[in-house]
Amino acid sequence: MTAAQTGAIAAPRGKATGWREWRHWPDDLARLWRRSLRFRIVLVTLALTAAAVLVACVWMALVIQRDLFDSRQTQVLTDARRATVAAQETLDNAAVQGGDTVQLQSLMNSVRAILIQQSSTDMIAAFRVDRTATQAPQDFAVGGFDESLITAGMRAAVRTNSEPQWWQSVGLAGPDGGTIPGIVVGQQLVLPDVGAYELYFAYDLASADQTLGFIQGILWVVGIGLVVLIGAIAWFVLRSVTTPIGEAAETSARLAAGELTVRLPVHGEDELATLGRSFNAMADSIESQIKELADLSLVQQRFVSDVSHELRTPLTTIRLAADMINDQRDDFDPATARAAELLNAQVQRFETLLTDLLEISRYDAGSVQLELEPTSLAHLAEDVIASMHQLAEQHGTDVRLVAPGGYSPVDMDPRRIRRIVRNLLGNAIEHGERRPIVVTVDSDQQAVALGVRDFGLGMRPAETEHVFDRFWRADPSRTRTIGGTGLGLSIALGDARLHGGELAVWSEPGRGSNFVLTLPRGTAPLTGSSPIRLEPADETQDEFGRTQPIEVTTASTPPRSVADAPERASGRGGATSARGGKP
Ligand code: ADP
């Protein structure tokens, strides 16, 4: 990811930027969903409340709608019945001669007036049931009654049944050209001696519809308000819980990062206060224990450092005396000569141990300073191999160098890196079971690396875990010829880390071990994989034999200054081998 990209993600987004970066919204929301308990719970609460409110509102709207319709229907049926009864009474009481068309027509006109007067609608129509009765008064339709509103089924029902009322829902023409809901009620009106009429009243339900719309509007407003209110309440309630949890998380992270003095603020006596108190008690205990351990460790470090320093002077004298006695061992009898030899070897070992201990105590005191200079790792490896040629020869081991890269100088402390390589190579020779050892040097843009691969004893995973521990040895019963102290790899790891690099190990019993040292080219910390593979592919020691053995420097040759070594022309693809002859 480029710096610019990182900046774009890390920078807090302003309002305008936020709107413009709408493509990031799904990712941002998904991240918020994963990371914020408050956001998640509020969203779930909102969704569930909205669903519940929606169901409640729809149900209420339906119930109210049905209720409004039922009451309006009852009202219009009663209204139509009352008007019809009044009209029928008038017709029944009128003494009009059956054949007098003029009188019948005027009676019908007065009946029409009564109907309009008695009913609450002015959309009324009457049609003769028997259209052949010629003396019967004319059909009429007032108030804009549209005959096509009545379905054939309803007309047939009204025509054939004299008694009950019939009704049906219709769509009436509205004032603005639209349709408004309505009801048509139909029944018979009988003109004595002349015949029956189908009588229809049309009522509009606009007022009921308006009431329903109004109620529905209110239900929506109340529902949305309720959802928002519940969401806001959930947000505030959760804030009172998640804020202390967030504080606790942040404080424990700071505690874990080493800020031992941080504590949680405690208010009240509720569960959160109990959590805070327990956390603070735990932090107190950790702080005091770590302080105790740190004090103890300081005392130990001082002790090791002081003892090592104190031992140095007498040891130098002992060393001189041992050297002198050893030089004259040819003059001694065989037993004394052997004792002199042993004394010399153990004094040497003691000296190595003391040097290592002093180095370790310097690490513990944090007083190690790197002396950086541009150094070619490939040439450094060549020098170390050459300097250990004799040891390899004694063990009958071939040490081969495969260096496709790593020639260009990189800033490092050559003394410390040489010590790491010497230690890795020494271990490989010691545990390599006389099989060839392959030292690989390679590099990429970020790092240079050196691998030491042997095909010897190897270690079990449980042993590999401890390989960098101080004073740890895989198996004390293993034959020791070089006489290590068990501090070598721990110092090597310290040196690698001081460079910002790393030292990794792969090992398998019977397949050997591979130690890989990786150093960064610059000051930037290491990222990504090492130029040298830690876990070897299934190669065998013989495959490495493809590299042509050549004689390079011998152990007695003074090592060349690797810092000044020229970069090889080809850079990559070179493979050399320093060979220790078999006895
Ligand atoms: P020492 O001075 O004993 O070599 P080190 O710290 O260098 O101490 O190594 C610790 C132990 O790790 C060794 O004693 C050995 O048992 C094990 N070890 C190190 N390198 C290898 C290797 N290449 N193969 C097998 N075992 C190894």
Automatic annotation (TrEMBL):
Its subcellular locations are: Cell membrane
Q: Locate the HAMP domain: which residues?
A: 239-291
Q: Which GO terms describe its molecular function?
A: kinase activity
- Residue span of region Disordered: 522-583
**Could you tell me the EC number(s) of this protein?**
2.7.13.3
**One of this protein's Pfam families, by short name?**
HATPase_c
User: Which residue windows are transmembrane per the record?
Assistant: 41-64, 217-238
Every copy of the Histidine kinase domain together lies at 306-523
Q: Which reaction does it catalyse?
A: ATP + protein L-histidine = ADP + protein N-phospho-L-histidine
| Bilayer topology annotation | Multi-pass membrane protein
Please state the protein's primary subcellular location: membrane
Q: Any idea which UniProt keywords this protein has? A: ATP-binding, Cell membrane, Kinase, Membrane, Nucleotide-binding, Phosphoprotein, Transferase, Transmembrane, Transmembrane helix, Two-component regulatory system
Q: Give the top-rank taxon of the lineage listed in the UniProt record for this protein.
A: Bacteria
Compositional bias ranges of the Polar residues kind: 550-559
The family database entries (NCBIfam families) matched by this protein are listed as: MtrAB_MtrB
- Name of the protein: Sensor histidine kinase MtrB
Q: Which organism is it from?
A: Microbacterium alkaliflavum
What gene is this protein translated from?
A: mtrB
